[in-house]
Design a protein that fits this description.
Blueprint: H1 5-21, E1 33-36, H2 39-42, E2 53-56, H3 57-69, H4 78-94
Helix pairs in contact: 3-4
């Protein structure tokens, strides 16, 4: 499957604009730690993951803020941090 960066940008903007229209200027997350499935296991639907790693939303957000301040150069792995935070936001707002 091919996904264009512009599709991703448009979807993200659409969804974030929706939250603003719904009155959200910020979201307070009720959890900090989360289980993460290692990449090798996450995309293998034929094997049940046997090991999980622990992620931390505050750590992910701190890395994103470092990028935003220009303290570090952008890197593709930043999308993993962003994805974890966006998932938590989406699940918090729905709850």
């Amino acid at each position: 499957m091919d996904i264009s960066i512009e599709e991703l940008r448009a979807a993200a903007n659409l969804l974030l604009d929706y939250l603003v229209r719904e009155g959200y200027q910020q979201v307070s997350l009720s959890h900090d730690y989360y289980w993460s499935v290692p990449k090798e296991a996450a995309f293998d639907p034929y094997q049940q993951p046997t090991s999980l790693t622990l992620g931390q939303l505050t750590e992910d957000m701190n890395e994103l803020r470092r990028l935003l301040r220009g303290d570090t150069e952008p890197l593709a792995y930043g999308l993993v941090w962003l994805a974890a935070v966006l998932r938590a936001v989406g699940e918090e707002v729905v709850a």
